[in-house]
# Entry
Amino acid sequence: MKQIRLQINEAWRTGWANPGQTLLDFLRNELNCTEVKQGCGKGDCGACTVMMNGVSIDSCLTLALQAEGAKILTAKGLGTKDNPHPLQEAFVEKGAFQCGFCTPGMIISAKALLDKTPKPNRDEIRRGLSGNICRCTGYKKIEEAVTSASERSSEQCDDRELKD
Amino acid sequence: MLLREDGKARLIAGGTDLTLEIRDHTNKFEVLVDVSRIPGLDRIHSDGYRIHLGPLVTMTQVEESRLLKEHAAALWEACSWVGGPQIRNRATLAGNIVSAQPAADGAIALVALNARLKVLGVKGERELMLSDSYIGVGRSAIDASREMIIGIEFEVQHQGEASAFRRMAQRKAMALPQLNCAVWIASSAGYCTNARIAVGPVATMPFRARQAEGYLIGKPLTDETISACAAAVEEEVQPRDSVLRGSGLYRKEMAEVLARETLKLAISRLEGSLV
# Structure
């Protein structure tokens, strides 16, 4: 066991990790970040997607010890109920989930996509979310939600530019 | 280097393969040495003669590299097919080589590019051709408990040269290839002067279709010679029956189609630099 420190949604957290323990297991069971979901556990479904140091990763394929000192963003860190992220708003508005299990991972992948490609086209959205599986087959609405969020975020940017 | 554990330690970088081995207990490691955060090992650069890739270069970095898109289109295309974005963000090209799978998209492209590896071990540095690093399915001549790839290198693309990669899979993403093919071709005045054709997974290691290459070299690059070359690829490959990838017979026939398409794609890229 080793004690590690890492930043989760901008707050420093400390916990004990085993050498072979995945980041997913560490986040859920040691730090209680249950918004990170465990699906397949082998990198196929994307339910456990988090951002580590600015890029999206499968937390089930990363060892906790490799994340020492890293900046982790989970779906919980994206926004709050009172102040939701444009992606969260868009997912709600478009009804982009049914059971909701894939949503935390889906929304982080969408965030990673928009960080790189603020105005993605349909193919770019599909490719950006290709590492996430939704078993309720809600892909179309998810795609719409990402499009809607991208329009929303760029409007916000435009506003900001105008103010400057 | 912390490899004084005498074979009991194992290097880990992206961990996208290794984490699964740990989880499934298919491999036991007493010590893992994480190299994923060593700065400076993720560079992609050209010295004008060769392109050098550091051992921590990820699939995403290859996919986003303009230099590689221009000089190694096959590699650029191949890496964009590996897993999904999350996996490409972590998985390294060096890991793709050490995992030694005959289907590895990145490695297939590197075989066609005639890549060379720089390896650092306890006894010092050595160099070997990527194609010589395979000793069996999933078995690499590079012992990750004693050695580390420190560089992947291949020649820059010259006038009249081009490369391409294509694959056949059941889905457009997150699917293992049923077949993949990478082609590197050199030409002069419409004639093929040199060619390398790599196909996977049709053998225990990435396969070079040397008879097909031999046929094409010296021939004009016409539809007829391309088709004949692709037929020679089909002749040479011996894919196994696979529950995952399809029957051997089917994949053998499809190797001709895939080789033809890949050759055509590579040749279409020549035209700009020809004339």
